[in-house]
Amino acid sequence: MTVTALVSAKSCGVTTSALALTLASSRPSLLAECDPAGGTVRAGLFEGRVDASYGLYHLAAAERAGDDALAHTFASHLIPLDASGNRKVLPGLTDPGQAAALGRTWPALAQVMRVLSDEGGYDVVIDGGRIALESGNLHPVLTPAPLLHGADLVLLVVRGTKQSLSLARHIVEPLRSELAERGSGADALGLLLIEDGAVRAHEVADTLRLPVLATLPFDPETASYLTYGGPPPRSKRATLLARARTAAEDFRAASSRRALQRQYPQPAAAAYPQLSGVLQRLNQGAGSRG
Questions:
Q1: Which CATH number is 143's domain given?
Q2: How far apart are CA 190 and CA 233, in angstroms?
Q3: Mean per-residue pLDDT over the chain, rounded
Q4: How far is CA 44 from the centre of its chain?
Q5: Helices (H), the chain
Q6: Structural domain of 243
Q7: Is 290 among the domain residues?
Q8: DSSP run (H or E) holding 157
Q9: Domain count across the chain
Q10: For the segment 132-143, what is each residue's pLDDT rounded down to a tens digit?
Q11: Torsion of CA 78, 93, 37, 126, to 10 degrees
């Protein structure tokens, strides 16, 4: 299936979008809350019912004990998001000060996500939080860079407002460079647009020079439930979850296209001048017949 990482320049609904995608997936799904600034699902959607004995921080000690310990701990720290147990969440940090302990854990965790997707058939959604930069590069502690490197898609979450686009503009190139040098390629980067604001999808794409891979509606009722808990929204009004299912399918398709392109790379036309000549003659012949 697909490993999709969501990030933002500033709070733009990353966690809410990640929860919506996880809950709406038509396949088994997992949300890994990996924001170094701390998780919000524990105190929000779960309303404090899940304590600090579960979650991301415990994987750091497990990773130091070896792969078997990490795999066992990871599985035992997943919390069901629905009655079926097909949708799960790894709760995030309870204290931003814990982030430094995860520096050597991120690469191993990225491998776990890969196995879950490729062999376990899970749609994995990573909440990477707010991108932090240091000297124009991804911050080594405040951004889970190895998780972005290992993702099939990295989605910059933005809103359709000039402020959101202004904040996002300065992190596009560092992200693109990071994925080109250490990830699966610069084309892994795309946009997830929250339809809040007057700027339309094509304008957002033009401004940030990135494709909008999916849009999600501004749905305050469902967003409030995912953010703070309480009674779930009535299904007929849950437009966010309905569109999130379509978005998840779009991401799967985009990931599959990228995988095929990497398997069968397109030859550069300049490397085959004879092919360019054949195509040119074919086009001229078609024009003369018209």
A1: 3.40.50.300
A2: 29
A3: 89
A4: 20
A5: 14-24, 58-65, 67-76, 106-118, 145-149, 162-182, 201-208, 220-228, 239-263, 273-289
A6: 3-285
A7: no
A8: strand 153-159
A9: 1
A10: 999 989 999 999
A11: -10
